[in-house]
């Protein structure tokens, strides 16, 4: 039974990877906030803001893998889902891009802190292997995609599941808002680094957010729907792991 579950998970990941590799745009200029784009002060600032979440995320991952080692495969799936979706690049504002993030699924499954590690590892590999993002801007990209997005997505999911009891709607909304939050934070990061000569930071934010919205809103809706489908698949074919996840989240809430 475990072999069948492992094979099914592998086929799901392989299918998603193959689909997006075949359909991925080839523009070399489509990426997260690219290497060297942020001024040194802001690049360092976002690294400092991001690192505490990364440290807490490492502690959360150690606890998960120690208490429930059977969830290691599920962690790998959450990381693969994030890697594939966030590698689908659609050129947008100069110096950045629009793309799904994939962090909502992992945040809903494991909580937001583990995603600070999984998301930053994804961003590191994309920067090194795909020239998607950069090392100096990794702190800024990780804070927007691996911290802000997962925290908002998880909080919205928990709030809606408690208030409505409708899981699919809660998953859709949480995943979609995790995606949109990433790009709102990215817009803030670009706005504070490059305030407009006329109107300052607010005008710059309105410009960046407005351009992002053209591509990001449809992407967020699509990501929310895909997350609902993937989570439904996991619940149908990996009930033991889902039960372990629920016990893990209850233990994390108590601690």
From TrEMBL:
Topological category with respect to the lipid bilayer: Multi-pass membrane protein
Residue spans crossing the bilayer: 40-61, 105-131, 138-157, 169-196, 208-234
Free-text function comment from the UniProt entry: Part of the energy-coupling factor (ECF) transporter complex CbiMNOQ involved in cobalt import.
An annotated GO cellular component: ATP-binding cassette (ABC) transporter complex
Name of the featured protein: Cobalt transport protein CbiM
Subunit structure and binding partners: Forms an energy-coupling factor (ECF) transporter complex composed of an ATP-binding protein (A component, CbiO), a transmembrane protein (T component, CbiQ) and 2 possible substrate-capture proteins (S components, CbiM and CbiN) of unknown stoichimetry.
DNA-binding is among the record's keywords: no
Record keywords: Cell membrane, Cobalamin biosynthesis, Cobalt, Cobalt transport, Ion transport, Membrane, Signal, Transmembrane, Transmembrane helix, Transport
Family that this chain belongs to: Belongs to the CbiM family.
Cellular location(s): Cell inner membrane; Cell membrane
GO process annotations (BP): cobalamin biosynthetic process
Gene name of the encoded protein: cbiM
Pfam family, one: CbiM
UniProt pathway: Cofactor biosynthesis; adenosylcobalamin biosynthesis
Domain of life, per lineage: Bacteria
Organism for this UniProt entry: Paenibacillus chitinolyticus
GO MF assignments: cobalt ion transmembrane transporter activity
């Amino acid at each position: 039974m475990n072999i069948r579950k492992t094979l099914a998970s592998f086929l799901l990941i392989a299918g998603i990877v193959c689909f997006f590799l075949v359909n991925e745009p080839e523009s070399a200029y489509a990426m997260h906030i690219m290497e060297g784009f942020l001024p040194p002060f802001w690049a360092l600032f976002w690294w400092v803001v991001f690192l505490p979440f990364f440290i807490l995320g490492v502690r959360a991952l150690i606890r998960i893998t120690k208490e429930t080692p059977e969830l290691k495969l599920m962690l790998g799936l959450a990381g693969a889902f994030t890697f594939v979706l966030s590698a689908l690049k659609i050129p947008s504002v100069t110096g950045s891009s629009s793309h799904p993030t994939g962090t909502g699924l992992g945040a809903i499954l494991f909580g937001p802190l583990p995603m600070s590690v999984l998301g930053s590892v994804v961003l590191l590999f994309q920067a090194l292997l795909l020239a998607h993002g950069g090392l100096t801007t990794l702190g800024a990209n990780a804070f927007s995609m691996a911290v802000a997005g997962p925290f908002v997505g998880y909080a919205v999911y928990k709030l809606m599941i408690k208030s409505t009891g409708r899981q699919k709607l809660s998953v859709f909304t949480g995943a979609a808002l995790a995606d949109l939050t990433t790009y709102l934070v990215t817009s803030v990061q670009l706005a504070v680094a490059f305030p407009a000569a006329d109107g300052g930071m607010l005008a710059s934010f309105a410009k960046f957010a407005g351009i992002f919205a053209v591509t990001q809103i449809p992407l967020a809706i699509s990501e929310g729907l895909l997350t609902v489908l993937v989570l439904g698949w996991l619940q149908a074919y990996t009930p033991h792991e889902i039960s372990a996840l629920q016990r893990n989240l209850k233990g994390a809430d108590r601690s």
